Amino acid sequence: MIGLALALILSFAPAASRAQSLIRDAEIEYALKRLTQPLAVAAGLSPERVRVMVLQDSSLNAFVLDSQTVMVHSGLLLRLESAAELQAVISHELAHIANGHITRRLSNMRSAGSAAAMGMLMSLAVAAAGHADAGAGIAMGSSSTAQRLFFAHTRAEEASADQAGARYMARAGISPQAMVKVLEIFRGQEALSQSRQDPYIRTHPLNADRLRNARGYASAYSGAVQSDTQADYWFARARGKLGAFLQNPRYTLRRAEKDKTAVGMMRRAVAWHRTPDARRAMAEIARLEAARGSDPFVQELKGQILLESRQFGPAVQAYARAVQMAPKEPLILAGYGRALLALDRPAENRKALAALEKARARDPRDPRMLRDLAVAYARTGNNGMASVATAERYAVAGRMKTAAVHARRAEGLLPRGSPGWLRADDILAAAEKLKQR
């Protein structure tokens, strides 16, 4: 069962079909940001604005969600074997952004509010990956075929992104040969029936010319490759934590049994927690603290394990230390607020509200945080803002009809023209525009 830090949210697929969810975890997202930054600079994009996020799906795919967000399937991240291979995937997707390949597709989204746009784009992404049923209920007025094609690229766009991506990798000192290795994973997929293909092939057409050209780019741009142990380290942390939470804990324990590194300790802590065996999990956390005591993500994981073990007071203390170490990290702030809410005392509820409001200011598209924020508002007597936060949570998940119900309730409880009222009004306006499509 995935815990609080590695939250599975934005679940779109109905019970009868395979769910896809956005995985939110501060450590994984930080690691991916570290791997992305040099490529974003090489592509002429803002490294602070570009983000890479993980969609829980065992199939192999990656795609651009909007002009700032790259999505990577968990299955692909776990399949790749090196930081350079993951950076090859990211570099290719950044090339689609830098080359303007998604501008036309996003043009119809601009009239929607940001909360609604996230839900629409995520639902289209799920359908594009081959799960047309998962996009049902999103008022886009497009067929499932159009949804599946929304994130697809032409062969010309793929060739352009391959060449630009290889160039960005070379500028960042990363071997473009990793791009060839990634493409070789998918070699032969186009000969399969569509039902057996990984969605990468449907959204990123692959043929012999493309692979041959990629080998040429790798040869042409291979001059300034640098060894980057930090990239390998952060890749190991992201991949290791993702696998520890998604794979069978017994499998993780076998694979990490003799791993004496901090990553090995973290994997064992997560695996024992999921077994569940809180005593052994905390023993690994103690070893991890001794090795990396100033690491905020260690304290965050400790807080998560304590919170899910219903040790609420110690969980608050661990999260508080994590916040001290990383005061601007929204997912850590959200975890701190969640732990404070678990105590359910007036003073702690007020502290939780302050932490969750800070988290929302930095990342307003986190549904789990919005759910907790609604609880904090309700416990502190502000039912109007509780309805606003609930409306935003449903809007982010693409459930605009339900979001509108809570937004109308919020408008009835808040002063007209107040910040909360305006946020609710934005959701109602977006819902109305979607209904007209």
Please describe what this structure looks like:
The protein is 64% helix and 5% strand. With 437 residues, the chain is mostly helical.
Topology diagram in text:
Layout: E1 7-9, E2 21-24, H1 26-42, E3 51-56, E4 62-64, E5 69-73, H2 74-79, H3 83-98, H4 103-106, H5 114-128, H6 144-150, H7 155-171, H8 177-185, H9 199-203, H10 208-220, H11 229-246, H12 249-256, H13 262-274, H14 278-291, H15 296-308, H16 312-325, H17 330-343, H18 346-362, H19 367-379, H20 383-396, H21 400-413, H22 419-436
Helix pairs in contact: 1-3, 1-7, 1-11, 3-7, 3-8, 5-6, 5-20, 7-10, 8-10, 11-13, 12-13, 13-14, 14-15, 15-16, 15-17, 16-17, 17-18, 17-19, 18-19, 19-20, 20-21, 20-22, 21-22
**Separate helix tally:** 22
How does the helix and strand content classify structurally? mainly alpha
Biggest sheet: strands, sense, closure? 5 strands, mixed
Task: Report the portion of residues in β strands.
Answer: under 5%
Number of strands: 5
Q: What oligomeric arrangement do these chains adopt?
A: single chain
CATH architecture of the domain at 7-101 and 153-229: 2-Layer Sandwich
Helix amount, in percent?
Answer: 55-70%
Q: What is the overall silhouette?
A: globular
* CATH fold assignment of the domain at 7-101 and 153-229: Zincin-like
Poorly predicted sequence stretches spanning 5 or more consecutive residues:
1-19, 126-149
